[in-house]
Each structure stands twice: as structure tokens, then as C-alpha cells.
Amino acid sequence: MRALVSALMVWLVVATSALAIPVRIKDLADFDGVRGNDLVGYGLVVGLDGSGDGMRNAPFTEEMLASLLERLGVNVTDEALRSKNVAAVIVTAALPPFARSGSRIDVSVSAIGDAKSLLGGTLVMTPLKAADGNIYAVAQGSIIAGGVAAQGDAARVVEGVPTTGSIPVGARVEREVEFDFAGIDDIRIALRNADFTTATRVEDAINRDFNKALAVTLDSGTVVVNFRGLGDVNPARVVGRIENLLIEPEDRAKVVIDHKSGTIVVGERVRISRVAVSQGNLTLRVSEAPVVSQPNPFAEGETVTVPRTDVELRQEPGIGFVEVAGETNLSDLVNGLNSLGVRPRDMIDILKSIHSAGALHADLIIE
Q1: Interhelix angle 235-242/196-210, nearest 10 degrees
Q2: Which of 59, 96, 145, 189 could form a disulfide with 165 if both were Cys (CB 3.0 to 4.6 A apart)?
Q3: Torsion of CA 85, 86, 90, 94, to 10 degrees
Q4: With 0-12 CB in 10 A as exposed, 13-18 as middle and 19+ as buried, what is 117?
Q5: Confidence of residue 191 (pLDDT cuts 50, 70, 90)
């Protein structure tokens, strides 16, 4: 009997673990202060194969090219600039947290003029600024275009977006963002999906792991961890320990509908009360087929247009009433909805109607 009870307890533990999927805190939340910064710059791409900006249609490209050449010691006039191998671009990048001077980051390049393609181009040295107006990185290098274009006299083929591209490790960090992480006394953990249950589980997991009341839940999206209760410690080591703790996250039941693509995503916790559904399509078609009546040759009379309208009202056979029973898991819910035998577009209307009737127990998000 004792062996049977032990086996049953092991089976219950395994079954419970299979149902719940623990997730690391680092995959659910962000730590206050550990963040990146957006950078942006304006530069020139050279070396294009005749697919650059038209100088007359993009005067800013002409001005910037003239300014660049003058800084290099070349005196040019407006009449001398007729190049089609240059394009003006916007350069963007993200400065990662704790990036040090001399490290390299990726950049994205996008044309802002009438350039046809950035394929084969090279970005000339471009300073990248943050929101405070200071330069934090400098970008330069060969561009990997995001597509390709080919054209002839009567046809043009475009694959992807050839007017955008990227430069892997194409920018060098020149200025660091000052942040004394080692001197902080506490840190806030911000949940990406605010939920009181998840926040309290994060608090419990941290306090249980350190065996001290270090963490306090402020609201549904914030948990504060105080380092003073640990004495003289390295905050970076404490955060590294916290971010790998496992918890079981909670979330609200959601149904997400994308009208553009006809995509429906149903969360695991979505439930539908017992409801009966009937669906059918009504099609009204009106077509005009005017008839022209004219006299015979050399006969008296005039040509008259006689209108003729054809109206067709067609109602396709519906599915009748189908009962969708209130079930306890996602599999049974999907089977109940599939029993309606309708197309995805019609399923969207059915889900909206079920939600309006109060039988869909979830947040309905329409994009």
C-alpha cells in the first residue's frame, strides 16, 4: 500500500509539472536601467549602379554630396553634379545596454529619395545621434540590400525591398551611456504583461530563493528588489541569479483576430458557454445590360438606349443551428468551433457574435 501511495504521488507531481510550463523571469520582465537607446543619422550611400537619387528630384542629396566633397578638398559647382550613383539615406541603430567605447553594433539603412536600389552601395561615414543630440556611434560600410530589382524597356521585376538594407556590425560606439549599476540599492522588475498573479509569483520566487523578504510587489506590473538586506553584495550577481528563477506565468484569456490576413489565434484559457449558432450568406447582385434600338439604314427615326436591369437575390444554405457546448480545454473548444464547418472569414463574424452574446469568456482583440 505504501508503494502504491508513493507511486500515485509521483504520478500527480509529474502530471502537474506537465500541465504547467515554468518560464525564467528574464523571459517575462525587464530590469529597470537595463535598456538600450535608439540612434539615428543622415548619410550618403555611394557606389550604386545608376540606381541612386536624381539630383534634380532630390536636392538634399545634391547639397550633402557637395558639402562632403568640399570637406575633402574638392571644389564643385551645381552643374558638375550629375551622378546617379549616390543616394541619401536615414541610418538607424539601437545602442545596447552597457555598450562600451569601441564595440560595434548593427545598423539599418533606408533610402529617403527616389533611389531605385541600394544594392552594392557603400555607406559613407555617418554620425549617429540619440534623443539628447549627442553622437554615440559612427556608421560606415558596405550595405546588404533587402531585395533586388531588374527592369527592361517594358517590364520591371522587384523582389523584396531593394531600397532598404543593413550593415552587420557597421557602427562603432564612440560614447558610452553612464550608469552606475554597481552602486544601486534596489532595482525594479517590470513585467511585459502586467498581471497581479504573475507579479506575486515573482515576489515569492525571489524571497524563497534568498530566504529573505527582499522583493515587494508594487502593482500588477512592478516588483521591487532591495539589495540592502543582503549586505555588501554585487548587484550584477544578484540580478543574474534572479533572472534565471523559474515561475509559472498567468495571463488573461484572449482571442486575437487579424482582419487583414484572416488569422484567428485562440488562447489556452479561452472558454465558451453553451451556445447555439446558425450562419448563412445572403448575396444580392444587380447588373445592368442596356439595349440599343436604332432605325434601319436610310429610315426615319433616332437611336434610343433602353435600360435593362437584372436583379438576383440568392441565399446560400446555412449550417442550421449547431450547438457549441461549454468545454473545459482548448482542444474541445477548437473541435466545437470546427463542427460549424465554415470558412475562417465567417468564423471571425461568428466569434464576434458569440462575444456580443456574452458567451465568449475572453478579451476579443481585433487588429
Answers
A1: 120
A2: 145
A3: 70
A4: buried
A5: very high
